[in-house]
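Assemble and predict.
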Amino acid sequence: MKVFKFGGASVKDAEGVKNLAQVLTTTGDKDLVVVISAMGKMTNAFEQVVTNYFDTKSEVPSALNEIVHFHHTILKELFTSEKHPVFLKVNQLITELSQLLDKNKSKQHPFVYDQVVPYGELISTCIVSAYLLEIGIENTLLDARDCIITDTKYRDANIQWEETQQRISEVVKKKGITVTQGFIASENTHNFTTTLGREGSDYTAAIFGYCLNADTVTIWKDVPGVLNADPRYFNKTTLLHHISYKEAIELAFYGASVIHPKTLQPLQRKEIPLHVKSFYNPTAAGT
Ligand code: ASP
Ligand code: MG
């Protein structure tokens, strides 16, 4: 079985979601865990909700409206009828979030952050899973919080490996396609939501890869693979076909935004290859 991770840039609009489906069709893998981030820049938008909640509460509704509008635009392009149950499901998630903010008593910013920002991933996976079903790609939507267990270090939670391993072995089906959220987890004392740090979805993919003894983990990106320089700053870059775990860890730690720094260690421990490939060109070898 394999693990695929699609980041925010890959699902930034309806075209992106359709392209994700195309990647699954082209690669043809049947036994997969598909880890997905919040759509486009939605994590920043949810962070704005948290900022407003603490600084200017009166602006929370307008920040939420922007989020609703963004997702509705994508939904309307993906589904022909607004009667499709996915519209209701997304609305329910937004209602749940508003109620959570109304009821909240905590003044702890990191705690509130982790209860709010994960809705980006919860909504994106709800939409992608429903879309895949709509076009005939069978899949099961899994709440990553049922599997990825952490301590209570909000916004930078540490994985409780034993419990996570046990839950993943119990819950994740080895056959078929499972769609789940990156970045989000659950702490094991009160089951509140936690997060693994910005860009943490790569790490989620590695955790699933490790616990499932995956054959490979693939991060699908808008670049052809790992390049020898950042294409945003250099116009002559070369694709690195193979790099060692050690080199990849160094790259990540020195700030190459291509891979989240914590991602490599679990994969290295089990010698699971990490592929970085272009979601525009899924048959190319990448890195
Ligand atoms: N959505 C989260 C972020 O933007 C996690 C991720 O994309 O990896 O940081
Ligand atoms: Mg991202």
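The mean pLDDT is 95.
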